[in-house]
Write a structure and sequence with these properties.
CATH class: Mainly Beta
Number of domains: 1
Oligomer: single chain
Number of helices: 4
Structural class: alpha+beta
Shape: globular
CATH superfamily: RNA polymerase II/Efflux pump adaptor protein, barrel-sandwich hybrid domain
């Protein structure tokens, strides 16, 4: 599975990834999470402008196998929503670390990334 985990991202124990550029973080779910869910058919739209604290429910995702909550791995304000995955949630399965991102958040506490895992740590955490 190591080739399904990208270097340079942060990872949460609840299987979200975070890509940081300056004070903005893009968030999505990991390859492992989308693989466990199966074919994703729905992603609840997140509204821009909402403020989230680390651990808050970010959105709900539905697949042919399950419904799951996605949690915000960091605190901040949602500044952009990926409308493409709202319209075509299968992109999450096809490209979870690229076109499958959910939202971008302006981080209010960038130091929270220190509490997330590196790619190596996440790989060890998800080792089967």
């Amino acid at each position: 599975m190591s080739n399904k985990i990208l270097e340079g991202l942060y990872y949460s124990k609840s299987d979200e990834w975070v890509k940081v550029e300056n004070d903005v973080a893009a968030i999505g779910i990991t390859f492992y999470a989308q693989d466990q869910l199966g074919d994703i058919v729905y992603l609840e739209e997140v509204k821009t402008g909402i403020r989230l604290k680390k651990g808050d429910t970010l959105t709900t995702i539905e697949s042919v196998k399950a419904v799951a909550e996605v949690f915000s791995p960091i605190s901040g304000e949602v500044i952009e929503v990926n409308a493409d995955v709202i319209n075509d949630p299968s992109q999450i399965n096809q490209d979870p670390y690229g076109n499958g991102w959910f939202v971008k958040i302006k981080m209010s506490q960038p130091d929270e990334t220190k509490e997330l895992m590196s790619a190596a740590d996440y790989s060890e955490y998800r080792k089967e």
